């Protein structure tokens, strides 16, 4: 669990449903209480709301993609990544949720200095701040992006460029999401 940002809740990943099951149980995607898919099981205890349990469905695109829980720049929202599928949920209203706009998520970088959380897929990145999406890069790679360095101002990465059959590189500005390098060489 990543606690880079402060939160207005406590949470923990569970290995099984507590018995007796007395808390509301939501399944994502959908925020339904009628049942759903297997996934990461999380107990959430908001400071001001009712505690609840969420099951966050595993992604299907990249079975080896990461799974973890992240605090977000919004202290009222939790992010759960389940084998590459990402979910942002209001801890006070678990029916208010959205899917992270990176599929599959292969890397997550909370950036306290910028008050953003950056999600990387195989080909691009998207950053969320307290209000939602702050920026999204253009396509950076053909596939298999690797983040090599992260500072308070930028992310450097590399990928295999199928055109030149060499490693390609890119740099993303964390303030704006603009980039240099990558597949379009800008």
Structural class: mainly beta
Mean pLDDT: 95
Please give the radius of gyration in angstroms: 17 Å
- Give the termini distance in whole angstroms: 36 Å
Helix content: under 10%
The succession of helices and strands, N to C, reads: EEEEEEEEEEEEEEEE
Tally of DSSP β-strands = 16
Overall geometric form: elongated
Number of domains: 2
Please mark out the parts with pLDDT under 50 across 5 or more consecutive residues, or reply none: none
Largest beta sheet: strand ordering: 1-3-4-2
Number of helices: 0
Sheet-strand content, in percent, reads over 45%
The major sheet is characterized as: 4 strands, mixed
Task: Describe the structure concisely.
The protein has two domains: 9-136, no CATH class; 137-186, no CATH class. The protein is built from no helices and 16 strands.
Question: What is the topology?
Answer:
Blueprint: E1 9-14, E2 24-28, E3 39-46, E4 52-57, E5 68-71, E6 77-82, E7 85-90, E8 97-99, E9 107-111, E10 116-120, E11 125-129, E12 132-136, E13 146-150, E14 154-161, E15 166-173, E16 179-181
Parallel strand pairs: 2-4
Antiparallel strand pairs: 1-3, 3-4, 5-6, 6-7, 7-8, 9-10, 10-11, 11-12, 13-14, 14-15, 15-16
Explain how this protein is built:
This protein is 0% helix and 47% strand. By secondary structure, the protein is mainly β. It folds into two domains: 9-136, no CATH class; 137-186, no CATH class. The strands form four sheets. A four-stranded mixed beta sheet has the order 1-3-4-2, with no helix packed on it. It starts with 8 loop residues before the first strand and ends in a 5-residue tail after the last strand. The model has no long low-confidence stretch (mean pLDDT 95).
């Amino acid at each position: 669990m990543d606690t880079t940002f402060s939160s207005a809740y406590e949470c923990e990943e569970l290995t099984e449903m507590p018995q007796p099951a007395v808390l509301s149980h939501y399944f994502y995607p959908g925020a339904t209480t009628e049942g759903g898919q297997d996934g990461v099981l999380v107990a959430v205890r908001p400071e001001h709301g009712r505690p609840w349990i969420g099951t966050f469905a595993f992604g299907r695109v990249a079975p080896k993609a990461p799974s973890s829980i992240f605090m977000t720049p919004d202290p009222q929202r939790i992010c759960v990544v389940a084998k590459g599928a990402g979910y942002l949920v209001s801890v006070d209203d678990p029916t208010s949720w959205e899917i992270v706009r990176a599929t599959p998520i292969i890397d997550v970088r909370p950036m306290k200095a910028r008050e953003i959380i950056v999600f990387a897929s195989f080909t691009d990145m998207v950053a969320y701040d307290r209000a939602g999406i702050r920026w999204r890069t253009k396509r950076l790679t053909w596939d298999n992006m690797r983040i090599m360095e992260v500072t308070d101002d930028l992310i450097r990465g590399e990928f295999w460029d199928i055109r030149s059959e060499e490693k390609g590189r890119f740099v993303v500005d964390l303030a704006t999401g603009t980039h240099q390098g990558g597949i379009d060489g800008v």
